[in-house]
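Q: Given only this backbone (206 positions), what sequence would you predict?
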C-alpha cells in the first residue's frame, strides 16, 4: 500500500508515534521547568517537535530502497517522531542527554554523538533514539522517538545548511561544503568565547 495516497491510514499509522512523543514531551517539559526554577544557568533554550509527513516517510523509504508501506516504515524508520532540544552551550547538551537517559520507563535504543565526531559536512548534534511506551487497555508497545540535542550555534548551522544546500536544486556542492565547514569552525570558536565569558561573569557574581 503506497502511504502517499492513504491519508486516513497515515493518520492512524502516526497516532501511536504522536502519543509516544507527547508522553516524552511531558517528561522533558517537567525537566525544563525544574531547571528554570532552580538554576540561573538553565541549559534549555527551546524545544521543538515534529512528526514526519507522508511525503517525508515515502522519501526516506525510497532513499533506503525499501518497500513503500506502513509495516516497512514501522520496522525500519526510527525518526518518524522527533524532538529537538536547543541548548545554549555544548556542556548543556551532554548534561540534558544524561538527564533524559535516566528515565527508567524509556529504552535507549541508539545514540550518536555527532559533536565529538561531526559528520564530514560539518554537522554537529547529539542524537538519541528512545523507545517510549504507548499504553492500551490490554497491552504496552514501545515506539521510537528521535531526540536531537544541539546548541544554538549548531542549530543555526544546520538550518542554514538545510536551506542553502538541501533545499536547493542547483547548488555547487563542493564550494558550498567548503563554506559551511568554515562556517562551522567560526561558530564553534564564537560559542567557546561566549561560554568562557559566561563562566567569567559567574565567577565575578559569585
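A: Predicted residues:
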Amino acid at each position: 500500500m503506497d502511504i502517499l495516497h492513504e491519508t486516513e491510514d497515515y493518520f492512524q499509522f502516526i497516532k501511536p508515534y504522536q502519543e509516544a512523543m507527547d508522553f516524552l514531551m511531558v517528561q522533558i517539559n517537567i525537566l525544563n521547568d525544574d531547571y528554570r526554577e532552580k538554576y540561573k544557568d538553565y541549559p534549555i533554550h527551546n524545544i521543538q517537535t515534529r512528526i514526519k509527513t507522508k511525503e517525508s516517510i515515502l522519501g526516506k523509504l525510497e532513499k533506503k530502497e525499501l518497500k513503500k508501506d506502513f509495516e516497512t516504515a514501522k520496522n525500519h524508520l526510527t525518526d518518524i517522531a522527533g524532538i529537538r532540544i536547543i541548548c545554549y552551550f555544548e556542556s548543556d547538551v551532554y548534561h540534558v542527554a544524561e538527564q533524559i537517559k535516566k528515565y527508567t520507563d524509556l529504552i535507549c535504543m541508539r545514540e550518536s554523538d555527532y559533536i565529538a565526531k561531526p559528520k564530514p559536512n560539518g554537522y554537529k548534534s547529539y542524537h538519541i533514539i528512545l523507545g517510549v511506551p504507548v499504553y492500551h487497555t490490554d497491552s504496552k508497545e514501545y515506539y521510537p522517538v528521535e531526540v536531537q540535542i544541539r546548541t544554538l550555534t549548531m542549530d543555526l548551522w544546520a538550518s542554514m545548511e538545510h536551506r542553502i544546500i538541501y533545499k536547493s536544486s542547483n547548488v555547487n556542492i563542493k564550494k558550498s561544503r567548503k563554506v559551511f565547514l568554515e562556517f562551522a569552525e567560526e561558530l564553534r570558536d564564537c560559542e567557546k568565547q561566549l561560554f568562557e565569558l559566561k563562566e567569567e561573569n559567574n565567577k565575578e557574581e559569585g
